[in-house]
Fold this sequence. Notes:
It is built from 18 helices and two strands.
Amino acid sequence: MEASSExxxxxxxxxxISIRTFVSQVPLLGWLLGALIAVALEHFVGTPFARxxxxxxxxxxxxxxxxxxxxxxxxxxxxxxxxxYILPIGIVARSSASIMNKLAGKLLDFPMLFSVIxxxxxxxxxxxxxxxxxxxxNDVARFxxxxxxxxxxxNIINGYMGEFSCSHPGFLALGAYSASVxxxxxxxxxxxxxxxxxxxxxxxxxxxxxxxxxxxVAAVGALAVAIPSFRTRGDYLAxxxxxxxxxxxxxxxxxEAVGGPRGLSSQPNWASLPVVxxxxxxxxxxxxxxxxxxxxxxxxxxxxxxxxxDAMTVNTRRTKMTAFMFGAFWAGVAxxxxxxxxxxxxxxxxxxxxxxxxxxxxxxGGLNSVxxxxxxxxxxSLLGEALRxxxxxxxxxxxxLLILVMIYRPTGLIAFKEFDVKKLIQPKKVSP
Length: 432
């Protein structure tokens, strides 16, 4: 009995090593090429192949939705995902590893920006082709990218700064409503604001300004939390930030100028997938540079030991307030994008359920890590969509998942790991 269990553990250990070796030898270019070929395969033969397996159509979300609705289709859904996604990606990535490593090495001879653009172009091609299969996928992709921005912005506060803030739904609401008021007032004939002030044709040129305004309003709102809470220590920030979230929600509900409890609609359809993708890439780049800068190191010093950081001439109060407003700014930008994806905002969109979802993304992915924020945002977003058929039970499962992660892995899946672009795109060593 002991011999058989030892043999099984050895097999498991060897399989883990072989998988790790397989993954480590393929550069990012190889994985992106494999993913591109997989989505191209689905684009051309996905629907007839799904019907041949007994599925009504190509799977919308990797089979999660149909498994919950029709469990008897589980074998067909697993076969579809395996033959359309997993096997093609693995085969293409491994077979092209040598060529892709040489190409990645050649790209390093050019400026880093050129290599980054190539990788981002392939990534966008994958996302675009995958989302082009249906409007539902397009919405899921955009919401996922917005979730990445929100998670990164909260990770600045709860991760790199070491505080616990509950105010992000309020910042999202401020950004969503501010950007919406700007675009609807200037470019849309609306029942609340009347006739448009400017021609709608030039509106997309002003959309970045609307997003920046949403971010700035959220950053100013952050002062209402930062000024009183950073004069104290301990759990006061969590209490004050939670109160701020409810104050913002109640204020919007009682403000008839922006629709009150009925919400605000008529937002122009300017938050297309390319726009949201570019905003998410910009957010990742800027936030990653921020946390790796001298200011980011000072923020970590404040988190680890505020008294020691103050003794080392770090202005701890200014550092914390700047980081808090910086995180709120990006939450406001994400809120502006969200409003123009949904094209309708309601105070109920920014309540305690949104807070639970965002906190789950941050702590599931990992604190102090841009990698972790991206993984957490994508993972919880896909999980939330997969659990949509369960209705209210979804809001039981996600908080329970957050509790389990906090118990068994308090720092998250990928914590305290730097996002280094050079290491990410460099060639890998391939064994002969």
